Amino acid sequence: MKNGKLDTLRPEDAVLENGTDVHVMDLQRDANRQISDLKFKLAKSEQEITALEQNVIRLESQVSRYKSAAENAEKIEDELKAEKRKLQRELRSALDKTEELEVSNGHLVKRLEKMKANRSALLSQQ
């Protein structure tokens, strides 16, 4: 009997070995599937990173353009403010000059009326 046991494999041992092999193969398949899934996710993530990096580059150049445009607009605004102040000074000066000329004209009109009155008086005396 001892020789019979040693020489023959029990069917339970074969099932156990085959079951272990099937279990190992299932684990290997699961591991391969997980690796494939992770490789796919990695490739997808790398594509997303590339797209995001390109988006960052595009947005940085857009920010640069907007910053440049804002600086130019501020420069133009400062120039326009200076021009406005200059024109307001010129306007005040022109208004002051106009007022002076109107006052002077008023005095001249009064003098002219006095001269006419004096002339009329002189002519009426003669």
From TrEMBL:
Belongs to the LRRFIP family. SUPFAM superfamilies: Myosin rod fragments. Residues 28-104 form a coiled coil. PANTHER family: LEUCINE RICH REPEAT IN FLII INTERACTING PROTEIN, LEUCINE-RICH REPEAT FLIGHTLESS-INTERACTING PROTEIN 1. Keywords: Coiled coil. It holds the Pfam family LRRFIP. GO terms for molecular function: DNA-binding transcription factor activity, RNA polymerase II-specific; RNA polymerase II cis-regulatory region sequence-specific DNA binding. This is Leucine-rich repeat flightless-interacting protein 2.
